[in-house]
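User: What would this chain look like folded?
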Amino acid sequence: MTRFSDMLDGYRRFRTTDWHNEHERWAELAEGQSPRVMVLACSDSRVEPAVIFDANPGEMFVVRNVAALAPPFETTPGLHGVSAALEFAVTQLEVEEVVVMGHGLCGGCAAALTRKFDHAAPGEGHFIAEWVSQLDEARDRVTARHSHLDRDAFLEMEWEGVRVSLANLRTFPWVAEREADGRLSLHGCHFSIADGRLYILDEAEETFRPA
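Assistant: Here's the prediction, encoded as structure tokens.
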């Protein structure tokens, strides 16, 4: 599926199969949504949360952006899309868990590590550089441990991205409050595209383990 015309063909198959067979489910979803989990994932076309977690429509509230990053809490003027989605999921839908899912071969994390788009003009990488600048301190930690930007360095950068997002999530008052009283749990994970394996972050041990 590479073109909009292919997407329309897919839609027609959906209407005649999935929607028809699951009509009752869709009728129920028309009344509202009540997902228990919010997933913060990367925009990368290879990493589709619903496919990876074998989830049905209505089961996950998903937000996707470059490198699966959660920004820190701030109330400065601007367009805070991820923060708005987080606020809606946590305070309005009252999800019980937030999952940050990084992934292998992440272009956003690679851009942060290599500083590929530093000083780029709009249309040439400027917005990418601004967004992944959230990983500047993490990049410094990674480069301090690796004399060469080898495969391990890129993987470690992806792991750091998950940790940064979790730390930033906890700067939101309504997230911190709910996590403290047990109404909300935060999870970090990393999906390896190469082998189709999911790794879960053990924050106590500061390591990722196979699910």
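The chain has two domains: 1-32, 35-210. If you want, I can go into more detail on any region.
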